[in-house]
Structure of Hydroxymethylglutaryl-CoA lyase:
Amino acid sequence: GLPTSVRIYEVGPRDGLQAETAVIPTETKAQFIERLVAAGSRTVELTSFVSPRWIPQLADAEELMDRLHLPDSVRTVVLVPNRKGLERAVAAGAREVAVFVSATEEFAKRNLNSTVDGAIAAATEVTAAARALGLPVRGYISMCFGDPWEGTVPVERVADIAKTLVDSGVTSLSLGDTIGVGTPGHVLALLDALRERGIPTSQIAMHFHDTYGQALSNVYASLTAGVSEFDSSAGGLGRCPYAKGATGNLATEDLVWMLHGLGIDTGIDLDSLTDTSSWMAEQIGHSSPSRVVTALRAA
Ligand code: HMG
Ligand code: MG
């Protein structure tokens, strides 16, 4: 059967804000995170310690971390691309870090100025260093289903990378459909390939972008395969500025609506979350693309 509870991994403050053209004050980001936690988010990706020239939107990572005082019960994670990012994150008091690699060469080049193997080597090095400091490490793989330049991505390739990351010590994996092209059969085939390599489902999270409207169907397929952690962003904010045609993440509200309808616990108060996303949309200056936010606002 389906899991009785699901961990929603909130990426709004990171994936959601990394491509916004509006400059968002650090204080607004902090309030966004505090409101998410007040609405019941138990896991939040706060920001990125990447090159500020690549992602100027998150260049205030140190200031944001300094401003936040979240309870230990909230799992907080920050994205780091390399040793320098790990050093900055540790100095800022990070409790968990996320490394990220690409399943395709063109995106490794555009997002990390590297190759697939070079990005894996960097992630492996950061993982070892972070684990030696006692930090859990999440390993993201981008372009797990398709890539705008290279087309469909073979599941075997993604499964091989996943196995390499798990062997290098990542404590969990997040499989990214960066441009939202995946469909449920492909999701099940990928999860099968990971199972064949002995990777436990309890270590796997799915990260869907809703570009082609497939995200919830893909979540449902993943649930039937035993996955119980899903990435989403409040109000459906977000995309990767280095991935052509990418739009927002699956909206947390849309995910919560489906999970609660299935009787699956998330810990999230939907009204409070919707208020937060609507408030954030005002700060950013454009309305939420989430269907559930739109419907509840009109109700
Ligand atoms: P590079 O230009 O090759 O880096 O970029 P470099 O090592 O040559 O360094 C260039 C300059 O950046 C140097 O400064 C470094 O010190 C500095 P300079 O000496 O010229 O003044 N630098 C840094 N500064 C601060 N913090 C750092 C850092 N690293 C270098 N950590 C690099 C390589 C990896 C740095 C760059 O490509 C980068 O930062 N990329 C990140 C891009 C990004 O954040 N993309 C979005 C997140 S991934 C995503 O959204 C996908 C995901 O959601 C899952 C999915 O949907 O698939 C996770
Ligand atoms: Mg993403």
About this structure: Residues 116-132 form the longest helix (17 residues). The beta strands are 7-10, 43-48, 75-79, 97-102, 137-142, 146-147, 151-152, 172-177, 204-208, 229-232.
